[in-house]
């Protein structure tokens, strides 16, 4: 692991790091905020998965999480959203919703993407091992949250690993890639035409197939331009209701899809995570 930068902030340290990923076959960049802590003390870890077009930098610069993480003494990790670099295949049209910046937190099975687009394994396995080795982290206390494509990532990763994440939340998540244009495009390209194979990457399908979490927090702005065509929180409500999966969905009047929305409610989400990670 190489350190790109560190800055003292809110009593702790905001760092940006790179490392050679064996899963993606590329150099990957991520950011970590570590609050002030006693020597030898290990802190809970909250993962933040970003949305389409993002790198680690979007939430790091615009997420307003540091004061809340310092107050609760939570480590905050922000990975990139896809492999990048020389030789990494992209969407032929350089579209924003597939390829670079749009890894969808899957392990691709389809050429030419299968070799590098392994963001599921990267976020579920490789990066947690690095965080455990390099930072003062208590990996028995992890939470996960995300935005839009990253909300989809957070929900699906948690539903597949219910014993690992003690707190789960999302901002304006894609709740069912099986039922929206972004998801259909991404999963066809990365996983192939067999929609049964997509179910491991669809929060609603995972719940319908039996996955459960103690509870979920979702915030969704009513003025979000992607609400009706792509995000469809009503599908998650119907699925959770039918499955007795506890869900707190808060429709936030007038908020859009941007980091102005995310940063407004970041404190509530970190309160939610802290309450569950300290239990
Ligand atoms: N056409 C837009 C779409 C990109 C966009 O809105 N990206 C969101 C996430 S959308 C779902 O995953 C985002 O977080 N953007 C970064 C930001 O800092 O706001 C475009 O190309 O801009």
TrEMBL record:
<protein>
    <recommendedName>
        <fullName>S-formylglutathione hydrolase</fullName>
        <ecNumber>3.1.2.12</ecNumber>
    </recommendedName>
</protein>
<dbReference type="InterPro" id="IPR000801">
    <property type="entry name" value="Esterase-like"/>
</dbReference>
<keyword id="KW-0378">Hydrolase</keyword>
<feature type="active site" description="Charge relay system">
    <location>
        <position position="224"/>
    </location>
</feature>
<dbReference type="InterPro" id="IPR029058">
    <property type="entry name" value="AB_hydrolase_fold"/>
</dbReference>
<dbReference type="InterPro" id="IPR014186">
    <property type="entry name" value="S-formylglutathione_hydrol"/>
</dbReference>
<dbReference type="Pfam" id="PF00756">
    <property type="entry name" value="Esterase"/>
</dbReference>
<feature type="active site" description="Charge relay system">
    <location>
        <position position="257"/>
    </location>
</feature>
<dbReference type="GO" id="GO:0005829">
    <property type="term" value="C:cytosol"/>
</dbReference>
<dbReference type="GO" id="GO:0046294">
    <property type="term" value="P:formaldehyde catabolic process"/>
</dbReference>
<comment type="function">
    <text>Serine hydrolase involved in the detoxification of formaldehyde.</text>
</comment>
<dbReference type="GO" id="GO:0018738">
    <property type="term" value="F:S-formylglutathione hydrolase activity"/>
</dbReference>
<keyword id="KW-0719">Serine esterase</keyword>
<feature type="active site" description="Charge relay system">
    <location>
        <position position="148"/>
    </location>
</feature>
<comment type="similarity">
    <text>Belongs to the esterase D family.</text>
</comment>
<dbReference type="GO" id="GO:0052689">
    <property type="term" value="F:carboxylic ester hydrolase activity"/>
</dbReference>
């Amino acid at each position: 692991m190489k350190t790109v930068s560190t800055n003292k902030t809110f009593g702790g340290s905001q760092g940006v790091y790179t490392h050679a990923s064996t899963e993606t076959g590329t150099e990957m960049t991520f950011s970590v905020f570590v609050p002030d802590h006693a020597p030898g003390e290990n802190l809970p870890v909250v993962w933040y998965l970003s949305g389409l077009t993002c790198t680690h930098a979007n939430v790091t610069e615009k997420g307003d999480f540091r004061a809340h993480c310092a107050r609760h003494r939570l480590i905050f990790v922000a990975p990139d959203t896809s492999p990048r670099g020389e030789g990494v295949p992209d969407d032929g049209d350089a579209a924003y919703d597939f390829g670079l910046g749009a890894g969808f937190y899957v392990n691709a099975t389809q050429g030419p993407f299968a070799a590098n687009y392994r963001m599921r394994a990267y976020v579920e396995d490789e990066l947690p091992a690095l965080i455990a080795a390099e930072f003062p982290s208590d990996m028995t206390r992890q939470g996960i949250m995300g935005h839009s494509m990253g909300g989809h990532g957070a929900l699906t990763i948690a539903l597949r690993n219910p014993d690992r994440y003690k707190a789960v939340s999302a901002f304006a998540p894609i709740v069912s890639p099986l039922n929206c244009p972004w998801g259909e495009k991404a999963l066809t390209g990365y996983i192939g035409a067999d929609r049964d194979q997509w179910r491991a990457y669809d929060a609603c399908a995972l719940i319908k197939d039996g996955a459960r979490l103690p509870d979920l927090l979702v915030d969704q702005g009513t003025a979000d331009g992607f609400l009706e065509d792509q995000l469809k929180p009503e599908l998650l409500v119907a699925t959770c209701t039918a499955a007795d999966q506890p869900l707190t969905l808060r429709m936030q009047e007038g908020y859009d899809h941007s980091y102005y929305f995310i940063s407004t409610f970041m404190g509530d989400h970190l309160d939610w995570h802290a309450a569950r990670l300290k239990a």
